[in-house]
Specification:
Number of strands: 20
Distance between the termini: 28 Å
Shape: elongated
Strand order of the largest sheet: 10-15-14-11-12-13
Radius of gyration: 24 Å
Number of helices: 12
Length: about 400
């Protein structure tokens, strides 16, 4: 009997691994794909607010800073299956793409289901032996296979089947799993004003302070939701914020409502439009500094506000962060299988022959903006091709 490959997890990394393995082997029936769900790619339907941000068009030099905690680990996988390759791959599957703000790539339809269905259709076309609705309990359950790829995802959105099984598999094989924590998640401020949820902030600035020191800043859009500061630039700061909270640090987010203007410029605008006005609320409305819905929360957050210090307040609205949403709402799981124990040019385990890891189960995650799906596609493609080549070479996977 010819050597066979088992892939556990039918998300973006697992399906990409199955596709590349089947193409490399020239026989999809030698690839067996297991997934907890009856249909593959369930989590894909939720990505990008249902639009599926496939990747980002930035070249590697600009792409890399958005990868954590070890961008160099991803480099070989990215070179082997880049963002350009991802776009070409989906267009060949009949999913045209469009590039929107922030160099983010989406299916032209802006329907995530088109991506999930195209991947599943390609998996089936190649003859991959798909077993949906199957829960693989332990790595030892796959002892009859000659190679195994773990593509189980992380712990975020557990309703989609991402319940951390891959970490258990890794530990069963002797791998170290680094501490897990939610990333791209909502940050909850202390004394959160009930009038803020539902408001969308456009083109504002956010600064992250850890123990009163500014460590990062972002500019763009985000939302006030019932869970706190969420999406957009808030997500990009959430990874460091959550890690700091887990380690007992003080965390503050400072909102800059007018990042394009200095305090001096704001003061000059006030002089031009409101010379005779002495009431704070009237100045704010006269100068169009705030939308009306934000006026109340802003004034309540600055009880000692005077006309003279309006510019400083507009540039610095502090939020003390005391909590965050967990894995049930987080977009991404940070932490995972220790990268030191994985061969970056093959995604093979350094500890067990014939074992590979790809996707979110690795200690590798990215910022919001298409980076995480690119990680899944790149590492999945490399793991699938590497495992298949090893099977073709007499079932003796390479080790380093």
């Amino acid at each position: 009997m010819q050597p066979r490959l088992a892939i556990v997890g039918g998300g973006p990394a697992g399906m990409m691994a199955a596709i590349r393995a089947a193409v490399t082997l020239g026989d999809g029936s030698r690839v067996v794909l297991f997934d907890k769900n009856e249909r593959l790619g369930r989590k894909i339907y939720l990505t990008g607010k249902g639009r599926c941000n496939l990747t980002n068009t930035r070249p590697w030099e600009e792409f890399a800073p958005h990868i954590h905690p070890n961008q160099r680990f991803l480099q070989q996988a990215f070179r082997a299956f880049s963002n350009e390759d991802v776009i070409r791959f989906f267009e060949e599957l009949g999913v045209p793409t469009v590039t929107l703000q922030g160099q983010r790539v989406y299916p032209a339809s802006l329907i995530a289901g088109d991506v999930a269905r195209a991947l599943e259709r390609r998996v089936l076309e190649l003859g991959v032996d798909v077993h949906g609705g199957v829960n693989v309990g332990h790595l030892s359950d796959l002892d009859g296979f000659d190679a195994v790829i773990v593509a189980t995802g992380g712990k975020s959105y557990p309703v989609t089947g991402s319940t951390g099984d891959g970490y258990r598999f890794a530990q069963e094989a002797g791998h170290r799993v680094t501490p897990l924590f939610p990333s791209e998640t909502a940050l909850l401020p202390k004394d959160y004003d009930p009038a803020l949820p539902g408001l969308e902030m456009k083109n504002v600035g956010l600064q992250l302070f850890l123990d009163r020191q500014c460590v990062a800043s972002e500019q763009g859009d985000f939302n006030f939701t019932g869970d706190g500061l969420e999406s957009g630039i808030a997500y990009r700061l959430s990874r460091r914020a959550v890690w700091a909270l887990c380690n007992g640090q003080r965390v503050d987010i400072v909102l800059d409502l007018k990042p394009a203007l200095s305090e001096e410029q704001l003061a000059n605008r006030m002089k031009r439009k409101a010379i005779a006005v002495k009431q704070v609320s009237t100045v704010l409305e006269t100068c169009s500094f705030l939308p009306r819905v934000l006026l109340g929360p802003f004034l309540r957050a600055h009880p000692g506000l005077t006309v003279e210090n309006i510019p400083a307040a507009l540039k610095s609205w502090p939020f003390r962060i005391f909590d965050y949403k967990g894995f049930d709402r987080a977009v991404v799981t940070a932490g995972g299988v220790d990268l030191k124990e994985i061969v970056p040019k093959t995604m093979a385990s350094r500890l067990r022959r014939g074992l590979y890891f790809c996707g979110e189960v690795l200690d590798l995650d990215g910022d919001t903006g298409g980076y995480n799906l690119q990680i899944a596609f790149s590492t999945g493609a490399l793991a699938g091709a590497s495992a298949a080549r090893a099977l073709l070479a007499s079932g003796d996977p390479p080790r380093e």
